[in-house]
Amino acid sequence: MTSILINVAKKLIPRSGIIKIKKLQAFFTELSLRLWVYSKWTSWLYYSIVSKAFWREQYGVIYGKLKFYENLKLGKDSNFLLRRNIHRLEKGLIMKPRRNIFAITYIENTLNLYEKALAVRDKNGTLELQWAHDVLKQYFSVVGFHPIIDPLKTKFFSFQAINGETQFVPYKRDPSILPPVNYEQFMELSIRRRSVRWYLQKPVPRELIDKAIMAATLSPSACNRQPFEFRIFDDSEMVQKVAAIPMGTAGFHHNFPAIIVVIGKLRAYVSERDRHVIYIDASLASMTFMYALETLGLSSCPINWPDLDPQESQMTSLINLEPDERVVMLISVGYYDPEGMIPYSQKKPLNQIRRYC
């Protein structure tokens, strides 16, 4: 109803009048904000009473906290807390100097999660479990005697060992082995990678997308939790439905051969302080993914996701998202159409984007 009234008003009011109304609106908005920004309490009142902009995030965070605790009770071969704790053990193992006793506060919980994961190993065996086994084995082999650690050590070595061809433990990098690409080659790849919006109408092989995602999994992630998921759509009808939801795709989304929705999972965290990590980690992985696509002869375009009710509701309904699963971005994928144009997109010069402190 509101949008209808706005459209009617635009037809009745001359353009000069609309400009004046917008100026008045901007004036009173700024005046109002100066009052609401008076303190943290007044800003809290603003977002509690006037604006609902953060309601979805608040609901998603608290829903994710509940899922976090629920997942602790389940026997899962992949658990966000287990991944985090194993990585914390790794960081303890590489400290210089390494402490004789460490991880007292979380080693029991870690071993309990590992034991639950072992219970479903036959059904859902993964390299992640071998990584957990190898790091725990090294930890218990080097840590000193302690009344909390000693019985846990005995318990761990009573479990059936997981022996792989490679030991997934901290290692030293060989400085004599140079990177397979030099800076100039990497710059060429960076210049080549641009946001491509026009694609040839040919299917994208799933094995190539999987290869690019494999590269993306090697991106850095806070405590190695990797709280994200790539949801790939390559059915033409579904691609069009998904690609039409975000703002800014009108006029060209009809030619997307495939679309990927990058999802962040707030259930990876128990603390509100970490609620933004899904965006950082997922974005790091997405950039690696897009570079990998270029090496495979594919092009891509990251698509900004608006945190707005209509779009959120449409996407949630279409791809069945849970409240703590937040869309980070979309990425279109396909073979570049040589007849299509690419914006030049001049980047900021070094002196505008870099400052030594």
Which CATH C-level class of the largest domain is it?
Answer: Alpha Beta
Q: What ranges have pLDDT less than 50 throughout 5 or more consecutive residues?
A: none
Mean pLDDT: 92
The helix count comes to 15
Class by SSE composition: alpha+beta
Task: Report, as a whole number of angstroms, the end-to-end distance.
Answer: 53 Å
Number of strands: 4
Record keyword descriptors for this entry:
about 350 residues; alpha+beta; NADH Oxidase; 4-stranded antiparallel β-sheet; 4 strands; about 50% helix; about 10% strand
Describe this structure in words.
With 357 residues, the chain is of the alpha+beta class. The protein folds into 3 domains: 6-51; 57-158, no CATH class; 183-334, NADH Oxidase. Helices cover 51% and strands 8% of the residues. The chain has 15 helices and 4 strands. It has a 4-stranded antiparallel β-sheet with strand order 1-2-4-3.
Itemize the secondary structure elements and their pairings:
Layout: H1 2-12, H2 15-36, H3 40-50, H4 55-72, H5 80-93, H6 107-119, H7 121-124, H8 127-142, H9 149-158, H10 183-192, H11 206-216, E1 228-233, H12 236-243, E2 258-265, H13 277-295, E3 299-304, H14 309-319, E4 325-334, H15 350-353
Antiparallel strand pairs: 1-2, 2-4, 3-4
Helix pairs in contact: 5-6, 5-8, 6-8, 11-13
Summed up:
By secondary structure, this protein is α+β, with helices and mostly antiparallel strands. The protein is 51% helix and 8% strand.
